[in-house]
Amino acid sequence: MSVYGYTQNYRLRKIAFDSRGWQTDEWSNLDVIDGILASAGTPIPFVVAGGTADVVTLTYSPVVAAYVLGLQLSFIASGTNTGAMTINANGLGAKALKGAGGSAMSVGQITTGMYVKAIYNGTDFTVIQPSYTNTQTPHITTAASGASPDSTADDFYIENDNDVGSSWLSPAGYSVRLYFGRPLVPAAGGLRYDHSTDTLYIRNNAVENVSFDSSGRMRQLNVPAFTASKSTTGSFPATTTDMLFNTELLDNNSNYDPATGKFTAPIAGVYHFDTSLVGSIGSGADVRVFGRFFKNGSAVGDEFSFVFASGPAATTSRGFAMALAAGDYVTVRYNYTIGASTIGAWNAVFSGHLVG
């Protein structure tokens, strides 16, 4: 007669094999599988945090063996944080605990007795519960009542009289955020308005790349821009040689190479370039110097020239705008055609930036 049994946790059915000798092994294997399922289905229990309010230590049993992508930890805060925070689980090392958007925790964002849940993104832990601390009474204003919202409350305000829209209000000194996220990056893009400076920030790829200050002036991070110079005495290079402006005065994003004299466009767009030359021959025959911009080794725009005569220093300059594709490069060539090839002392400058 066949006798059936079941595992303890997940009630896996143990099939009886009558008198066959390997029944015991099969039942044992099912017990192992049952144990694995039970272990995998058990979340890491939350613990009361140790350490300090800002430098948190967590001791779990069973222990957390390693920080792995997607690992979630939970704990009861033992104090109110005073600034940026770190957590250290089972002595694996301190990792930054950050708020939504990857920003450092602000003062009072975690309070004593608060249940905190965080997820590991491969570098830091991000708080996923609670998403923020609301120390005021939230409320929603939804009509054109003319009443002013509470100056200290977190508000979602909808006006429906002459103007229609929505407004997120927060206490003075704090920022209002509207973020758009993706898995493990809850604030990949969006907007942030800083009350203290009346500055609007635009965020993409988890970085605030553009801002508008209280006067409406725009600031962009990582805008391709450079200025390089060359100061020397002696001969000009040959007509087929790009001038090497070997002293970098500015090179935002490192798109100019002083070793080759090339500016390489990191993205497609319209760029504006300038070049100038100051020199003096001191005495002797006049020297006519020609200059020109080159794109990917081919001349662009008109050639410009200037005569350096004996006496005081003279200067020439030229600006030029051109459309570039990503990877295009721009150089400048100066050369003489009339008079001596040597100017007593001269200085040349090459600069450019992305217009849009």
Plain-language structure description:
The chain is elongated, with a radius of gyration of 34 Å. The strands form six sheets. An eight-stranded mixed β-sheet has the order 3-6-9-10-8-7-5-4, with no helix packed on it. Strands 14-15-16-17-18 form a five-stranded antiparallel β-sheet, with no helix packed on it. A five-stranded antiparallel β-sheet has the order 20-19-28-23-26, with no helix packed on it. It has one helix at 23-40; strands at residues 5-6, 13-14, 47-48, 50-51, 55-58, 72-76, 85-89, 95-98, 115-120, 125-129, 139-141, 155-160, 164-169, 175-182, 185-194, 199-204, 207-212, 218-220, 225-235, 247-252, 256-257, 262-264, 269-280, 287-295, 298-308, 314-324, 329-338, 342-354. The protein is mainly β and 356 residues long. It starts with a strand and ends with a strand.
What fraction, in percent, of the residue positions are helical?
Answer: under 10%
Assign the structural class, choosing from mainly alpha, mainly beta, alpha/beta, alpha+beta, or little secondary structure.
mainly beta
Task: Give the strand tally.
Answer: 28
Q: Please state the oligomeric state of the protein chains shown.
A: single chain
Any idea what the shape is? Answer: elongated
Distance between the termini: 84 Å
- Major beta-sheet overview: 8 strands, mixed
Provide the residue-averaged pLDDT: 77
Indicate the radius of gyration in whole angstroms.
34 Å
Which spans have pLDDT < 50 for at least 5 consecutive residues? 131-136, 150-154
Number of helices: 1
Order of strands in the sheet with most strands: 3-6-9-10-8-7-5-4
Order of helices and strands: EEHEEEEEEEEEEEEEEEEEEEEEEEEEE
**Approximate strand percentage:** over 45%
